[in-house]
Predict the 3D structure of the following.
Amino acid sequence: MRSGRIAPGAVIDIKRISAMQAVQGHDGGFTIGAAMPCTGLKQAKDLAAAWPGVVEAANLIGSVQVRNRATMAGNLCNASPAADAVPALIAAGATALVVGPQGERLVPVEDIPAGPGKTTLSAGEFIAELRLPPRPQGEGTPICAPPRAPRWTSP
């Protein structure tokens, strides 16, 4: 908003909704609430053990003061080419639960950014949580998603 890219009619603070600040394990995978601060991910020991690269990437964002407020969902929605957490989320095969006026949809993280400063989110949509799949097990098992073709080209 400060940069002038968007001018919303309303701003809603979701940080006080407990589910939005939670990390929950399920069926071997994890959900990370959209308002979970990056520094809080270190306390989620099961997440850090399963996906250490994702937790490390989240803790590369800005300074300690920034990471105390910043979230991985916010890092994703800024759609910056320099986003620290996004490559780790893509490599992990993460998806985003997008919620809006038309309901919910599950979107691969790599399909959220549409270019520098632009996302594929429609008006009124927001990311409620990020989902990490179960970590592959076994010797020699790759820990990243298969490569996908680029979705956009430079102007």
